[in-house]
Specification:
Layout lengths: L1 H20 L22 H12 L2 H13 L5 H25 L6 H8 L2 H33 L3 H9 L17 H14 L3 H28 L17 H12 L7 H5 L7 H30 L10 H8 L3 H35 L18 H17 L6 H23 L14 H16 L2 H16 L11 H4 L4 H26 L6 H26 L17 H14 L4 H25 L9 H8 L5 H25 L5 H5 L1
Helix pairs in contact: 1-24, 2-9, 2-12, 2-14, 3-12, 4-10, 4-12, 4-16, 4-22, 5-6, 5-16, 6-8, 6-14, 6-15, 6-16, 6-23, 8-14, 8-15, 9-12, 9-14, 13-14, 14-15, 16-22, 16-23, 20-21, 20-22
Length: about 675
């Protein structure tokens, strides 16, 4: 008896934990406002410049030369084009959520609403690391760029002070502590504590300077362009083949990371419903055009084998006998890296703020300064940890680690767009007083229901409720009713999205593993047969999702061609994820394991979504058969509430109460 009771208790506890891990956050009906809210003061131009500044930084001055010389050659323009398309697919998903949920936290909040608390914490935990590593790596790039201008004086002086041989034989630790990079993170974090409007103004000035330098590079580069530089190298325009273009796109994709700061700033936008989608599309379009034109100008000025990867643009102009341009490009590079650093330090504290407001992190991170209306403690913590990383670690080996968290966030956001688009309205939203015409129609439908058999009544009642909620099978897909008619539309769509992600991962993994063996006849036959089998089921999942109507109530901006566009975004993100190294995945799981200690040790017990009805104490009492009078009274109240809900549902579908029900 004791063993049986213990098993029941364990089952209840595990059920409670699973229920808490899957609880969802409700869509805000207050326009994103809260009692301790951030200040809404950012215009569309401010948010646009914030997004451009976060994306256009070290990538255009360092990444362009590396990809052009070692990966794609002149085909880098196609690499940036493909990377821009993949980024736009993810960005429009962020834009829809930014208008639907104008809250700080971006992907974390979106996942909390659409998927559940556990995955939301995973996304938020990884986004925090992503921005922390991003800030630290950019600060080291900033320091390294200044040191190169000074002829290595900073590095040599630091090594001399430490004894000349103070370097570490490690892939992670830096050769010397970068004090300048550490100070840069701290100084900018303290400066951002002055207020978001001051930060936006400073970022806007630096971004405009950076854009001016880019335009100068494009104009001067095309003036000195020589088409022979595209075709005189071995292999012509694509010296590394189309595979080099794809590999270059995977690398160039991370140059577009940063547009999520636009969605993060939604809670501080004056009109997020219009500002977020406009800023997202304008900034990504401008950045994509800028990257393509700058890379084209670089590869047209000098042959790709003469490009210096560490300082491609200054050296290119130096070879053309234009030393004045080197000074201007240096100014643009420092401005660009500064805006990228500001973007990371802007997004990181707000992600901590969103998680703390939901109770998943310590409550001290959910406080906003009454004067500046920014989370000052979060800024100080973010700047301090980023500064320590920049001081000690050589983050060039951890840049790939940033990508896995970013791609995972993009994947979950795209999946969340599909789930929410097909989520029916909640029953409480169906409580309304119909006008006279609606009442007559409902009464007529009630009379017709009463004339049918009980099975037909249930079917038509479900159809009426489904239509009222905005999600039901389209007329041309009625033949699927025997297959999915007994399931809720939301459950069908969620299951299809999960299966599509699994099938997509299987396809991408198989293509990666068997790509080298596909030249053999047997391997090619079985590989393509297996992939075709998986692809069929993946497309079937997308088709089944598209068989339902969508709930677009209240959306001012919508992702077009749902579920196709989000599905393409999921496929592209997973395809890039499977090409990451095993070490990157190992580091990812170690970081997630640390997050699990935080979630199960603190977050799951302090979540704001916990109403207390599933506490361990109440579960133990229920499992052992101990119920107090208060529990019985609460259970009675729940039954009365359930009866009220049934009555409301009956009223909505047009069913009239019987005399016995009216007397009761």
């Amino acid at each position: 008896m004791t063993g049986k009771r213990g098993g029941v208790i364990l089952a209840h506890v595990l059920s409670s934990i699973c229920e808490k891990m899957n609880r969802k956050k409700s869509l805000p009906n207050d326009g994103g406002r809260s009692q301790d809210t951030l200040k809404r003061c950012l215009s569309t131009l401010d948010i646009t410049l914030l997004g451009i500044g976060h994306m256009v930084g070290a990538g255009i001055y360092v990444l362009t030369g590396t990809v052009a010389k070692d990966i794609a050659g002149p085909g880098i323009i196609f690499s940036f084009f493909l990377a821009g398309l993949v980024s736009i697919l993810a960005a429009i998903c962020y834009a829809e959520f930014g208008t639907r949920v104008p809250k700080a936290g971006a992907a974390y909040v979106y996942t909390y609403i659409a998927v559940g608390e556990f995955w939301a914490f995973i996304i938020g935990w990884n986004i925090c690391l992503e921005h922390m590593l991003g800030a630290a790596s950019v600060s080291r790039a900033w320091s390294g760029y200044v040191d190169s201008l000074l002829g290595g004086w900073i590095k040599n002086t630091t090594l001399a002070l430490l004894g000349g041989e103070a370097h570490y034989d490690s892939d992670l630790l830096a050769q010397y502590p970068d004090v300048l990079a550490c100070l840069i993170c701290l100084v900018y974090a303290l400066a951002m504590a002055l207020g978001v409007k001051i930060t936006a103004a400073f970022n806007g000035i630096l971004t405009l300077i950076n854009i001016g330098v880019m335009l100068l590079v494009i104009c001067v580069g095309f003036w000195y362009a020589d088409l022979q530089n595209w075709f005189q190298a071995d292999g012509g325009f694509l010296p590394y083949g189309f595979g080099g273009v794809i590999a270059g796109a995977a690398t160039c994709f991370y140059a577009f990371v940063g547009f999520d700061s636009i969605a993060t700033s939604a809670e501080e936008a004056r009109n997020p419903a219009s500002s977020v989608p406009i800023a997202t599309l304008v900034s990504l379009s401008a950045v994509s055009a800028g990257y393509i034109l700058v890379s084209a100008a670089l590869t047209l000025m000098i042959p790709t084998d003469q490009i210096n990867p560490s300082a491609s643009l200054p050296e290119a102009f130096g070879q053309l006998g234009l030393p004045w341009a080197k000074i201007i490009i240096t100014i643009g590079a420092l401005c660009g890296m500064t805006t990228t650093l500001l973007g990371s330090l802007f997004a990181l504290p707000r992600c901590l703020y969103a998680m703390a407001c939901d109770g998943l992190l310590f409550s001290c991170f959910g406080r906003v300064n009454s004067m500046t209306q920014v989370p000052v403690l979060n800024l100080l913590a973010s700047g301090t940890f980023s500064a320590l990383l920049a001081l000690v670690f050589d983050l060039k080996h951890l840049v790939e680690f940033m990508s896995i968290g970013t791609l995972l966030a993009y994947t979950i956001v795209a999946a969340s767009v599909i789930v929410l688009r097909y989520r029916p309205l909640k029953p409480e939203s169906l409580i309304y007083a119909p006008d006279s015409s609606e009442s007559e129609n409902l009464d007529y439908e009630a009379d017709s229901l009463s004339e049918n058999s009980s099975a037909d009544t249930i079917s038509q009642t479900g159809e009426l409720i489904g239509r009222s909620s905005g999600v039901y099978l389209k007329a041309k897909y009625k033949w699927l009713e025997p297959l999915v008619g007994c399931f809720e539309p939301e459950r069908v769509v969620s299951t299809c999205v999960m299966l599509f992600c699994i099938f997509t991962f299987g396809i991408c993994f198989q293509l990666k593993v068997y790509w080298t063996d596909s030249k053999a006849d047997d391997a090619s036959y079985w590989t393509f047969l297996f992939n075709g089998f998986i692809l069929f089921f993946a497309l079937a999942c997308v088709t089944l999702i598209g068989a339902y109507t969508q709930n677009t109530q209240g959306l001012t901006f919508k992702v077009p061609f749902v579920p196709v566009f989000p599905a393409l975004s999921i496929f592209a993100n997973i395809a890039l994820m499977v090409h990451l190294s095993f070490v990157t995945w190992l580091r990812f799981f170690i970081w997630v394991s640390l997050g699990m200690l935080m979630y199960f040790g603190y977050g799951i017990h302090h979540s704001r979504q916990d109403g207390g009805e599933n506490s361990n104490y109440s579960i133990l009492r229920t499992a052992t058969g101990q119920q107090s009078a208060a529990d019985v009274e609460q259970e009675s109240g729940n039954k009365q509430s359930a009866g009220t809900s049934i009555a409301i549902c009956h009223r909505f579908i047009g069913r009239k109460k019987s005399k016995g029900e009216q007397i009761q």
